[in-house]
Design goal:
- It is a single chain.
- By secondary structure, this protein is an alpha+beta fold.
- The chain folds into two domains: about 120 residues, OB fold (Dihydrolipoamide Acetyltransferase, E2P), CATH 2.40.50; about 60 residues.
- About 45% of the residues lie in helices and about 20% in strands.
- It contains three helices and five strands; from the N terminus they run αβββαββα.
- A five-stranded antiparallel sheet has the order 3-2-1-4-5.
- The two termini are about 50 Å apart.
Length: about 210
C-alpha cells in the first residue's frame, strides 16, 4: 500500500513538472539563419503539441505552419514554429504571428557577421515526434554570452509552490483534526468487534468442550 501511495505521488508530480516545463517560457540565445513555411500533417497523437487558435483547426488534417531556423552559440541547430496561441493553452495570448515572422526575417544573419537574438518560446523539440517549440518573441542582444534571468518563472514557481505548501499545511491540519479521529474510532470499533468475535469463539469452544466431557 505504501509503494502504491508513493507511486501515485511520483506520477502526479512528474506530470505536473512536465506540464510546467512545457508551458513555462524558455529563452534561447541564437542566430537566425532562415525562415520558411511548410505544410504539416496534424496526427491525432501529436495534435496536442500544435496550436489550435481557431475552431476549424480541430477538423483539419494538415495546415501551413511558419518555421524559424536558428543556430545556438555552440553551433547546434534549433527550429521553432511560429503559431498564434489565441485564447487557448498555454495562455500566452499570441496574435502577432505575421509580425514575429517579419522580425525573424529581419534578424537573419551569417556566421561571418552574426546577429544574436533571444527567442522566448514554450514547448519541446523532438525530431522523432516532429514537434517544435513555439516562438513567442524575439529580442536583440549584444552577444551569445548575455545572461538571461527567467524572472517570470522564478516568481511563478515561488507563488505556485507557496500555494501548494499552504494547501498541504491546511489539509494536514484538517486531516489531523477531522479525519484521523474518525479513522481511529473506526479502527477501535474494528478491534472491539474482533475482540467480541474472539470472546464468543472462546465461549463456544468452552461450551463444546464441556459437552464433550459429559
Amino acid at each position: 500500500m505504501v509503494y502504491a501511495k508513493w507511486a501515485i505521488i511520483v506520477v502526479f508530480w512528474a506530470t505536473v513538472g512536465a506540464i510546467l516545463h512545457y508551458a513555462l517560457p524558455q529563452h534561447d540565445i541564437v542566430r537566425i539563419v532562415n525562415t520558411y513555411e511548410e505544410r504539416q500533417d496534424l496526427n491525432d497523437w501529436t495534435r496536442m503539441f500544435w496550436s489550435e487558435p481557431e475552431d476549424q483547426s480541430t477538423n483539419l488534417s494538415s495546415r501551413d505552419v511558419q518555421f524559424i531556423q536558428a543556430v545556438r552559440a555552440n553551433g547546434k541547430p534549433i527550429v521553432y514554429r511560429n503559431e498564434d496561441t489565441g485564447w487557448g493553452w498555454p495562455p500566452y495570448f499570441k496574435f502577432d504571428t505575421a509580425n514575429l515572422y517579419t522580425e525573424a526575417n529581419d534578424a537573419i544573419s551569417s556566421k561571418d557577421d552574426p546577429e544574436w537574438v533571444v527567442v522566448t518560446h514554450y514547448g519541446w523539440r523532438n525530431e522523432f515526434l516532429s514537434i517544435f517549440p513555439n516562438a513567442i518573441s524575439i529580442k536583440h542582444v549584444e552577444g551569445p554570452d548575455v545572461r538571461i534571468i527567467p524572472w517570470f518563472n522564478i516568481v511563478f514557481l515561488t507563488v505556485f509552490f507557496g500555494l501548494v505548501w499552504a494547501i498541504w499545511v491546511r489539509w494536514r491540519r484538517f486531516r489531523e483534526a477531522r479525519i484521523d479521529p474518525l479513522l481511529e474510532q473506526a479502527e477501535d470499533g474494528l478491534y472491539a468487534v474482533g475482540d467480541a468475535i474472539e470472546e464468543r469463539r472462546s465461549g463456544l469452544r468452552r461450551w463444546w468442550e464441556g459437552r464433550k466431557s459429559k
